[in-house]
Fold each of these.
Amino acid sequence: MSEKKRRLKLSIPEQEVMRPGNLACQGCGASLAMRYALKALGNNVILDLPACCWSVIDGPFPYSSVGVPLLHMAFETAASTASGIRAALKVLGKEDTKVVAWAGDGGTFDIGFQALSGAAERNEDIIYVCYDNEAYMNTGIQRSAATPYGAWTTTTPVKHFKKLPKKNIVEILAAHRIPYIANLNVAYPEDFIKKFQKAMSIKGMKFLHIFSPCPPGWKMKPDDTIKVARLAVQTRTFPLYEVEDGLKYTLNVKVNKPKPVIEYLRLQGRFKHLTEEQVSTIQKNVDEEWALLMKKIDKE
Amino acid sequence: MKKVLMGNHAISIGATLSRVQVIAAYPITPQTQVVEKLSEIVANGELDAEFIKVESEHSAMAASIGAAAAGARAFTATSAQGLLLMHEVLHWASRARLPIVMANINRALAPGWTIWTDQNDSLSQRDTGWIQLYASDNQEVLDSLIIAYKVAEQLSLPVMVILDAFVLSHTYEPVEVPEQSEVDKFLPPFNPEWKLDVNNPHAFGGLTAPNIYMEFQYNHHNAMLKAKELINKEGEAFGKIFGRTYGNIDKYKTDDADYILLTSGTLARTSNIVVDSYREKGIKLGNLRVRTFRPFPTEEIYDALKKAKKVFVVDRNLSYGHSGIFFEETKASLYNSDLDIPIFGFVTGLGGRDVTPELITEIVEHGIKSEKPENDVIWMGVQK
Amino acid sequence: MFKPGKKINFNSAKDLPPTPASVGDMTHNFTGSWRNLRPIIDYEKCIDCMICWKFCPEPAIFIEKERPKIDYYFCKGCGICVTECPVKCIAFEEEGK
Ligand SMILES: Cc1ncc(C[n+]2csc(CCOP(=O)(O)OP(=O)(O)O)c2C)c(N)n1
Ligand code: SF4
Ligand code: SF4
Ligand SMILES: [Mg+2]
């Protein structure tokens, strides 16, 4: 083996801005998401962070793991705080510094939604990131508007698992006609980083929605994080697409031969209780949503 | 230059002269002219600032926090329901030790819907860790904003400048508008040591364990105590340049007074008229206006009251099930002193009911006649 | 590779910044102690595709002389690298064995 020619070609940037030693659980998708994001963002960025798992992951005073300036803030303020930081940088002549709001699904779909919609309507020049682990994980796995149909959480116990669909946050943001919206997934780092880079090159409001598995919250093995995230795409549960100016839809990862959704569900204890019939309901929903999306995708 | 200004415009001009850099505000009666005027000033390029037209007061304060944390001088203004909506992030601003200055126009709370003045909105924010200054005329409103930044930025503490709805916000009064160059000499640019800085990255406000949380509160409290000195010091320094001096308290004929009214806001101006009429009758009445409510100027209040026989606190606010709030605070802060005089607590003027010289006279008469207060709340002007 | 950091202690209110502000990173926190299973790369079989490096959330895999190297100070033992390795060259062995 030693004679093998080693010319490393890395598909994502080698630089690490995020530091290890952080407090994320084993196999945390949110931790990996931040690592990728900072690879793309580099050091000329300011983060603001509402209450979420990342408030803990980053580490307690007097430490931090992100390696860039970060402002911890109240749960519902990711977008409004970022707007304030952006305005300050503008008057202070530091327009090249990027401002990133980094929130969970609870902070985005639910409690922080008003501020997010406000910032989107004002077309603030910020990158709003939602790492979506489909529940309130920081407080111990309670349902959010991002929790999908069928999932167990502590507030949607097996007997009363969530019977409502996941809020379609991308469509809601698209209705704001902001310059850039994209779905990202930790199992697709190249696409992930490309989308961050694209967001950085665009002025105005950007919304990046990251599929981010949570092993304890989803009752799955930590080593399955990437597998599950990949299956979310391969089963068409979480399509990787982007929306420009609220109108131009592009599918970034084609899924010509989708795997059955059960393959995705099976690896996660939060779906364990589902009957065959319920699984086929989910399959049907996935197929319908995909068909709807395909109608919007630009076919050049 | 002398101008005739409504309180809301005095606020806008005070903020402009302070060269605020980020404004994030949301309209609410009786504050709307503040946002309107500032929008105009920024749009005309008279002030090099960003105005974020946020979608709520909660976002106004959150944006102010973001802006101040990034090193910009931040300003907002609100009233009543708007201030209450901010409550969570008011705590955040002060604990983050950000020198944000805000004007709050005292408006009573709903229900029933009301737009008229009382102090329950701002006094409900008593423990948010903000400095609170209550102004009694439009000149003071303008001047206080400038002084507020000077104090705030030295102590890393936010300041609320408070004025009465309509009685000041919409009433035109002659106001001396200082020269920008003079204000610039008094108030240097904001340049905080700790800020969001890509060349010197820190994470602010992370998880803080019981072994060290309390030390931050200790420092915050001490900074508040220091504010007592600094408000007087900067109020005097301001006076040297502009000829108008301000402090934590404002004494009107209290030095030899047997009876002292203790008031705040515009009630103090009505009370001064009553003081004069009693003085004409040979009765030694005085009026102590408390301008700084947080930090509470206990020592100065003690000094002002120590020779009096009785004190009549007039509260345009109420802590339900207890008493008027200035009364409660005054009484409590003097409890361990050697002062043993009756302190009367009158509650009046809620929801903008007029407080006339006649009503203040009734208060004084009631106090002089009674040996001791019969109750912690003596209602005045209520139709029982 | 990240150098193991030091703990920072504040014992007096006088030394504190005005608000809780970080002055160091978490590299004093050896999350390697969380591990039950230890990933071990068989460099004979490793094809240097760097997929393990790519997917490690910490980051606890770094590149040394163009090869992946696991930093056991920080590797939490999640097993993602073990599962994702395309040639299955990362063994997962019980700690302390
Ligand atoms: C106003 C307010 N309500 C409730 C909370 C408690 N809280 C903190 S984090 C959190 C859930 C966060 O969920 P999400 O945004 O999805 O992030 P995650 O923890 O899943 O990463 C809740 C409910 C809070 N901090 N503030
Ligand atoms: S609970 Fe889930 S999201 Fe939170 S740190 Fe753990 S794995 Fe990550
Ligand atoms: S086991 Fe997990 S933490 Fe350890 S090196 Fe592999 S991917 Fe990284
Ligand atoms: Mg979540």
Amino acid sequence: MSYLQRSRFRFSLLFILSFAFPVQAQIDLSGEWGAVFHEDSDERRPGPEMVEYQGIPINEAARRRALSWSPSLLTLPEHQCKPHPSDYGSRGPSNMRIWKEIDSESQQLIAYHTRIRWQAPERTIWMDGRGRPPEYAAHTWQGFSTGHWEGNVLVVRTTHLKQGWARRNGIARSDLSEFTEHFIRHGNIMTQVVMVSDPVYLTEPFIRTNNWKINLAQQIPPYLCETVTEIDRPQGEVPHYLPDQNPFLREHADRYNLPLEGVLGGAETMYPSFIE
Amino acid sequence: MIINLNIIRSIISATALCFCLFNSGVTLAQQNFDDVEIKVLHVQGNIYMLVGEGGNITLQAGEQGVLIVDTMFAPLSDKIFAAIRSVSDKPITYIINTHGHGDHIGGNANLAQMGSNIAGGNTIDLFAAGAGNQAKVVAHENVMASILAQENPIPIEGWPTDTYYTSKKDLFFNGEAIMITHQPNAHTDGDSLIFFRRSDVISTGDIFRTTAYPFIDVANGGSLQGVLDGLNYILDLAVPADRQENGTMIIPGHGRLTDEADVLDYRDMLTIIRDRIAYRIDQGDSLSQVKATEPTFDYDDRFGLNSGTFTTEKFIEVIYNELSIRN
Ligand SMILES: [Zn+2]
């Protein structure tokens, strides 16, 4: 075979091979991603205020539960080292590493793994088509996630979540929740769309977006959490506010001159028409 | 797929139906178990969780034999035995009962007779006739008392052979310390909590379930405070691993596998509900006034029951009565 023939042969072999194996990933998401906080910055960095529930499609049960929530709950040792659940992790200090797990023989993508800075939760998004654990299996903070590609968008479905929070001011998200994510990469920018459903506390899906920018110099430091008893409480004491006794009920509404029903949340408070 | 609340409700009411059946003394022959599948989940170390109909079974397997905590309903025994055989070919040596309800001890007789004691061969004669030919059944003595008090008790072969009346009983089996502690007046008056120390797994019985509010069986000595004490004891025993997860694994009486964080949320909820009702009682409210304040409203869509013996309304009543007496 002449040189030209050989290279033609190689080319056509390559061409055939590229059809023989299904294209797994349309775009690679691996890398060190720095969190971008231009969106919802007040809620995500300093954190929400007490009784600031607007913009979340909560039902009356979620509202009442949130009104009984006291931040002192987080002084209990068992509550101190909880990481953000995977539907919330991107909201916090969310510098993130994404890396691939590849089968060394077939070079197929088995999973994406992520690690987020705050409390260092590590998460696996299975890409190998495996089934879900049974309903009697344990639920975890990160849940069980599987992903597939829709064009260049990675679509992830997560179940088996522990009870978590929709906002860091006592709005509960139940352990029956599930969520779908879309990871959309445009060059060095990545957007994540998170759509959470909760049959217990939400009246309609709660949708949020988060963004990252690639950061080649990023180093995620180790994160060790150790519980400390700072307030010695009698065994079994659980800090909370009794109904109608939340001292912060009007604080946020008064500070910003908002009507109380506006800050108490619900699907209607998500839409601009509510203001009118 | 989003979990449909109606499906969850129907699962919960199916569970409630089970309680209904043994509470009313209806014979279980009327319930059809043909479609029930016994599923096996490896928890960690020597421990497996068996899920079917009725209370979850905890299975410990090793060189010495098989130990099971609870036995579901009698008609399921063959399926349970087959499930055990998928894990171990050793004899069932111990059955521990977490309490005396029919959905936890129903298969005692069958499964005890499918097993054998540690004694065998020549040594069998050293025991009372036949006692070596079946598994030992360990329970708090109040379980024995409740069996004796039943109109249609389980067959005598399933009665506890090994009761304890103190606060605890220890076993060492399959290379593992097994600590059985009595949880006084909790779900019933005969609750045992079983801690497998090496495998780091707790089997809670019905002090804890992920499917509904706790069933406080007042007629059999149960109380909310006992349940709370039991849950607080679980929190004391359990040590989570990194990121407040896993570490000590906890098998509930009904529902899915859990760890400390799940028990914590449940304990918090029950404490909050107790405090709300106690506050209303302090304000002089009657039961109907307390009910009108909907003290469980924010948890009902997850844990409330509208049918069966132990509805949410009954749950509130039981707590009201208990706290009123204490005042
Ligand atoms: Zn029970």
